[in-house]
């Protein structure tokens, strides 16, 4: 409907990232084909939530993943169907699982993998009193992932209730400067390790709206990118996403 022009010059929804149950194995290919047809040129890939932790206090993601799912033979048969169609894979995993993401990237070097939410650092339940340890472990894992050229990172999702920040519990919402100061270690580590050309800012709305307004969050990203070059800013705010998801921004 946006493309019809009825609503003005805005061209929203340049691409669609959906979900396909890769536990179907090779049969997932038929589902991909159906989604490609239904997407009318916009379907570019899927996201799969594999978040699971041995701590029972950590919420598993909605797909009810089993331990080691990303290494499962049948699941990987489904994953292999992505490359055959030049589709991307968004990985939503928790930080203790990042080595599994790395193994997946190594096994399928021709598939573009987007790591969501800076790699899902956990900071609640048994991780609540171990923030320094978690950051160190996360950074080490991210350093290893950065060696895989087919992995890029969505830099955002830090406003979720993952145990790191309590802005959503405070009586008044944070300013963009407060968010920038809080998020800086995570954001700058990602950009340093992967480079701006493999990082993209993400709002993660509506989930992150428990922490701040949409404009405030993007202003925080602007503050975090203030010292970046013009080329780096383009990559972070649009270029990386356009390349990874194959968007033609000239027509937007």
Chain-wise SSE layout:
Elements: E1 16-18, H1 28-38, E2 43-49, H2 73-83, E3 88-92, H3 98-107, E4 113-115, H4 131-145, E5 151-155, H5 176-194, E6 199-201, H6 214-224, H7 230-244
Parallel strand pairs: 1-2, 2-3, 3-4, 4-5, 5-6
Helix pairs in contact: 3-4, 5-6
From the N-terminal CA to the C-terminal CA, the straight-line distance is 14 Å
Spans of at least 5 consecutive residues whose pLDDT stays below 50 are none
Q: Note the run of SSEs as H and E.
A: EHEHEHEHEHEHH
The CATH C-level name is Alpha Beta
Record field, number of beta strands: 6
Class based on secondary structure composition and strand pairing: alpha/beta
CATH topology: TIM Barrel
User: Considering the protein shown, what is the CATH homologous superfamily?
Assistant: Metal-dependent hydrolases
How many domains? The number is 1
Can you give the helix content as a percent range?
Answer: 25-40%
SS strand fraction: 5-15%
**Mean residue pLDDT:** 96
Q: Characterize the quaternary organization of these chains.
A: single chain
Rg over C-alpha atoms, rounded to the nearest angstrom: 18 Å
Global shape: globular
- The name of the CATH architecture is Alpha-Beta Barrel
Number of helices: 7
């Amino acid at each position: 409907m946006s493309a019809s022009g009825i609503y003005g010059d805005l061209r929203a929804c340049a691409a669609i990232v959906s979900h396909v149950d890769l536990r179907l194995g090779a049969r997932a290919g038929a589902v991909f084909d159906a989604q490609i047809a239904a997407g009318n040129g916009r379907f570019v890939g899927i996201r799969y939530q594999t978040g699971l932790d041995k701590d029972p206090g950590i919420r598993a993601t909605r797909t009810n993943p089993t331990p080691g799912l990303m290494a499962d033979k049948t699941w990987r048969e489904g994953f292999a169907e992505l490359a055959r169609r030049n589709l991307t894979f968004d990985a939503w995993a928790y930080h203790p699982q990042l080595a599994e993401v790395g193994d997946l990237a190594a096994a399928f070097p021709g598939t573009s993998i987007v790591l969501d939410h800076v790699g899902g650092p956990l900071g609640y339940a048994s991780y609540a009193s171990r923030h320094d340890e978690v950051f160190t472990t996360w950074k080490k894992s991210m350093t290893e992932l950065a060696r895989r050229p087919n992995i890029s990172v969505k830099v955002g999702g830090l406003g979720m209730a993952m145990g790191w920040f309590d802005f959503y519990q405070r009586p008044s919402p944070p300013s963009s400067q407060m968010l920038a100061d809080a998020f800086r270690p995570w954001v700058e580590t990602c950009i340093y390790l992967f480079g701006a050309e493999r990082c993209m800012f993400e709002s993660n709305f509506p989930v992150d709206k428990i922490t701040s307004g949409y404009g405030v969050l993007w202003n925080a990203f602007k503050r975090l990118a203030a010292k970046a070059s013009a080329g780096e800013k383009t990559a972070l705010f649009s270029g990386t996403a356009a390349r990874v998801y194959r968007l033609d921004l000239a027509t937007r």
